Predict the structure.
Amino acid sequence: MLKGLDSFDVWNYNGLNKLEKGDFIMQVYDTVNKKEMELDTQGLIDIINAGRQVDFILSEPETDEDGYLTWDIEHWSTVDGKKFIRCYSYKGRVLRDSTTHNIYDLANDFKPEKAAKVELS
């Protein structure tokens, strides 16, 4: 699950079901440790729970169904391991909008496979 990490504490969900999205492995660049690693979706969630931010850099901008918000980067983090926060950027500017998700929402909303590049901050 956490391939390429040396000493890293993996979050324990304490009885909550872990996400199962198959074996989608992606290249992730760690901007702090300056190295590439291979992670699956669950590995990214474990890293978020350990206190890191995961950034999905999209190949083209996305817009919500109301046409209100357009973004080209999603920033995922957590406060307490139960509530996940997605913030947005567009053309280099961090937007004021954000969304919150619980662990079960991630099955529908956390989609690293749509990113052109994934980075850890």
